[in-house]
Write a structure and sequence with these properties.
The protein is an alpha+beta fold and 507 residues long. The chain has helices at 2-7, 24-32, 41-62, 76-88, 96-105, 119-129, 158-174, 218-221, 233-240, 244-250, 256-275, 354-363, 366-373, 382-389, 440-455, 469-477, and strands at 15-16, 37-38, 114-116, 133-139, 143-144, 151-155, 181-186, 193-202, 206-213, 224-227, 279-289, 294-296, 299-303, 334-337, 343-348, 396-404, 408-418, 424-431, 459-465, 481-482, 491-497.
């Protein structure tokens, strides 16, 4: 076995040596040769699956996501007003119209739901929606459709609507639930697939997203997966790929557009959960998927009773309490003007920036590359470039200055890498050669110092090549102190004590 492993070093090998007494010496020998061995085959298979999953997750982290939501700007005030009105009345279960308003604020399509309180009103509303319509009993406390046990489809005229209202009203009263209401909806487009998307707060992981087969089969088939916000295009697709229903739909050519719609919808839903920490649980079931897009038919939203009404993210903490992964810090985006009046966009880096960063590095001169990376030329492979762009915002922050024309062009990059001691960080940046001398460097330096103060960083460090005299003078301009150089060392260390230096404006 040892000889076989040595001749096939790239083949994973797991061994099971049975017999606690007779096999112990063999197991000891195999372990000494760095070949994993186990008492039972089940342990070996489980270890192999752990290794596979670890490798899969690493590759997933290195994928470059596409930019799905260009200029996405949800109507956050509209969603927050709905939640604020509910909390003002000490009501934690949202009505169908309120839940639909929140989803609509984030561009998530929802079938119109109208509460009716009389047969005459039901007839008027059904004519406005366009008969045939659906009537159901809705309660945010127990759900709707199969969970309330009453839904009537294909109501084609006023007579059928009146009869259905009487039946649904009696059923709503029998639930002994003050929140139970009779609602009308247009009939959904036929030929759809029922999916489910939801989220719930977990004590261990913060908010957790669920995706899977919906409708009556959600709990019967248990074909679903979970993920953690924030989601981008790659994470959303990999999450969905774990379900059987997604793999089935992927084999239908006409549903390729619908699957792209699902990716975008999950990213929008993820941003909703990030922006609205008051949501304790949300359930969109069913989400009716057609060949081109989809629409949410039923949605239930419960607010978190334990969350303070005036909850705010902690200052300097980029990962809020209701999440386990820090989201993209939108608060650090801003428009800036150079000395010549040119308007630039300053923002944190994203995983989607990999192609633009590759072009930026390739545009740098040999001197700029040497002073930034200590290399004569740069040929950064995808693995390294992905790590450069996909940062943990709680540990590393990187900001880009981009010029906006037809596409964004990166002209400057600055990095703030926090040490194990969160009060110290290393600063480094580069500016495109064609843009040097126009104030990009000063812009990046001043902004990064302001962000460092906002995060509670007290000491900034820079390592600069001793021949890069322009950067050394630039650091001294901002009160960086040059430390004594070690004999034989090519790098100069410069340090800025933010607790003593003059403050800059908050970012």
């Amino acid at each position: 076995v040892v000889a076989a492993a040595e001749s096939n070093p790239r083949t994973p090998l797991f061994t099971t040596w049975c017999g606690e007494q007779t096999g112990f010496s063999a197991m000891t020998y195999l372990n000494s040769q760095k070949i994993p061995t186990f008492f039972t085959p089940e342990q070996a298979v489980k270890s192999f699956m752990y290794m596979y999953r670890y490798d899969y997750n690493l590759k997933l982290l290195q994928e470059t996501p596409e930019i799905l939501l260009k200029d996405f700007s949800p109507d956050l005030p509209r969603a927050e007003k709905v939640i604020r009105d509910c909390l003002d009345h000490q009501r934690f279960a949202l009505h169908a119209e309120e839940a639909g308003t929140i989803l609509g604020a984030y561009g998530i399509p929802v079938i119109e739901s109208v509460t009716v309180t009389s047969a005459d009103e039901a007839c008027r509303v059904s004519r406005r929606l366009g008969q045939p319509v659906t009537m159901k009993v809705y309660s945010p406390n127990v759900g709707c459709k199969q969970r309330t046990g009453w839904v009537l489809d294909n109501l084609n005229n006023d007579r059928e609507v009146e009869a259905a209202f009487s039946v649904c009203q009696d059923h709503a009263l029998s639930l002994h639930d003050a929140a139970a209401r009779v609602i009308l909806q247009p009939m959904p487009v036929p030929g759809n697939y029922a999916l489910a998307i939801g989220a719930k707060k977990s004590r261990s992981f913060g908010t957790v997203i669920l995706f899977g087969l919906g409708g009556a089969y959600l709990h019967a088939e248990k074909d679903h997966c979970v993920g953690l916000p924030p989601l981008n295009q790659t994470l959303a697709r990999r999450m969905m790929e774990e379900t059987r229903i997604f793999r089935y739909l992927r084999e239908i050519p006409s549903f390729s557009g619908a699957l792209a719609f699902l990716e975008e919808l999950l990213v929008r839903f993820s941003q909703l959960l990030i922006d609205l920490p008051q949501i304790g649980e949300i359930d969109m079931n069913p989400l009716l998927l057609t060949e081109h897009d989809g629409v949410v038919r039923d949605v239930i939203v419960h607010l978190d009773k334990k969350l303070p009404k005036e909850y705010r993210w902690a200052k300097g903490d980029l990962c809020p309490l209701h999440l386990s992964i820090p989201p993209y810090p939108f608060k650090y985006e801003k428009e800036v003007s150079l000395k010549d009046g040119t308007v630039m966009h300053l923002r944190p880096i994203r995983g989607e920036d990999e192609p633009a960063m590759r072009s930026f590095f390739e545009s740098l001169s040999e001197e700029s590359v040497f002073f930034r990376f200590g290399l004569r030329r740069i040929n950064m492979p995808h693995v390294n470039l992905a790590r450069f762009c996909q940062v943990d915002y709680d540990r590393d922050l990187a900001f880009l200055v981009v010029a906006r024309d037809q596409e964004e062009v990166v002209v400057g990059d600055v990095r703030l890498n926090r040490f194990a001691d969160p009060e110290s960080a290393e600063l480094s940046f580069a500016v495109a050669d064609d843009w040097q001398g126009r104030g990009i460097g000063s812009l990046l330096m001043e902004y990064c110092i302001a962000v460092a103060r906002d995060l509670g960083v007290k000491t900034l460090w820079m390592e600069i090549n001793k021949d890069n005299w322009r950067m050394i003078k630039f650091g001294q301009k901002y009160n960086f102190v040059r430390l004594p150089i070690v004999e034989g060392d090519d790098q100069v260390e410069m340090v800025l004590d933010l607790s003593r230096s003059k403050g800059l404006a908050t970012p």
